[in-house]
Amino acid sequence: MSRLLVTGGAGFIGSNFVHHVIEHTDHQVTVLDKLTYAGNLASLEGLPDDRFRFVRGDIGDAALVDELFAQADAVVHYAAESHNDNSLDEPRPFLDTNIVGTYTLLEAARRHGTRLHHISTDEVYGDLELDDPARFTEHTPYNPSSPYSSTKAGSDLLVRAWVRSFGVRATISNCSNNYGPYQHVEKFIPRQITNVIRGIRPKLYGAGLNVRDWIHAEDHSSAVLTILEKGRIGQTYLIGADGEKDNKTVIELILRLMGEDPAAYDHVADRAGHDLRYAIDSTKLRDELGWQPRYRDFEAGLAATIDWYRAHEEWWAPAKDATEAFYASKGQ
Ligand code: NAD
Ligand code: DAU
């Protein structure tokens, strides 16, 4: 049994990971989370008191981070400002949390000799053409497009430098787009599902030809646990489940699964600098560590996600109006 510290554990993927760890291991879990607009304690309800505790705080608070690292055997670092559209509106919090926050954790890992797993994104590699047969691998050069992805790229490079220069025992994973329960309504899939529930027409940026490589959050969690247990120190592993779909296809599928006319959506202003396509080659993770995704049927996973949002309106309703007001102010 280990004591895990999970940063950002009240967010979408972090909370899915905490539930996964409690269910599939006997580890103790401490979550450190600032509870920004994206954090939600309701995502952590029902966890056992004898194996789980929550600490509200900022990963940039060096004294608090030091205290929590002293009590942890390993740290999984999810905390981040995560939304591209917000980073185009106000980049500063992305630098503070994604770069300075990660630096603060690395310094604590260095002092305490703590094992650290850093969660990152496929967006650090930039984008691909629609007809490019290539997918991202661990050797693809970094080429981020947005303030969000550039700060994630910066954080990855800090981790690599702390491994090489100071011997920090860290691994990195870069994952593609996640879907599943507990995702904030600002993101593409939950925004459209909750729009349909509210009687608002779904909103597609531009022509909607952009491709994302969808993976269920549960598969992301099992991959991270595998890397934590078996990954080689200093290595990067790409996580993906061969789930490429263009946005137009996804929005039409959501409408169809929800019993609506698949054409009943609006084209709205495109995202500035909008990445065209992401695609992950996760051969290294599968061959070296033996990981496999379980959720291979996107339509079934999406239908279950729709059911979850229908059944948990009390979870997402408090954020819905402010999120739509933000998008409306940008013509989206
Ligand atoms: P999210 O926005 O849903 O959650 C982020 C969490 O971090 C929130 O609970 C928030 O309160 C917390 N947080 C933010 N700033 C903090 C700070 N300074 N100190 C402590 N806590 C802070 O994000 P998510 O979608 O769950 O993403 C989690 C991680 O996974 C991020 O590092 C992101 O880059 C990465 N990632 C996300 C995806 C995806 O599809 N969502 C894909 C690949 C990688
Ligand atoms: O690839 C991994 C990344 O996936 C993570 O690093 C990010 O944290 C995560 O937010 C996600 O980034 P995206 O920008 O791809 O996700 P988002 O849900 O914001 O948008 C997905 C696609 O849908 C993108 O092409 C933009 C488009 N979109 C988005 C919204 C909110 C729409 O067409 N309409 C919308 O209303």
Can you describe what's shown?
The protein is α/β, with parallel strands linked by helices and 332 residues long. Helices cover 43% and strands 16% of the residues. The chain has helices at 12-24, 62-70, 84-89, 92-112, 147-166, 188-198, 217-230, 247-257, 283-289, 298-311, 313-329; strands spanning 3-7, 28-33, 52-56, 74-77, 115-121, 170-175, 178-179, 203-205, 211-213, 215-216, 236-239, 244-246, 266-268. The strands form four sheets. The protein has a seven-stranded parallel sheet, with helices on both faces. Strands 7-10 form a two-stranded parallel ribbon. A two-stranded parallel sheet has the order 8-13. Helix 1 links the parallel strand 1 and strand 2. Helix 1 (12-24) crosses helix 7, helix 2 packs parallel to helix 4 and helix 6 (188-198) runs parallel beside helix 8. The chain is globular and about 55 Å long. The relative contact order is 0.14. The model has no long low-confidence stretch (mean pLDDT 98). Bound molecules: nicotinamide-adenine-dinucleotide (NAD) and 2'deoxy-thymidine-5'-diphospho-alpha-D-glucose.
Quick overview of this protein structure:
Helix content is 43%, strand content 16%.
Instruction: State mean pLDDT (0 to 100 scale).
Output: 98
Could you give the order of the helices and strands? EHEEHEHHEHEEHEEEHEEHEHHH
* Rg over alpha carbons: 19 Å
Distinct helical segment count: 11
Features:
332 residues, alpha/beta, 7-stranded parallel sheet, two-stranded parallel ribbon, globular, binds nicotinamide-adenine-dinucleotide, binds 2'deoxy-thymidine-5'-diphospho-alpha-D-glucose
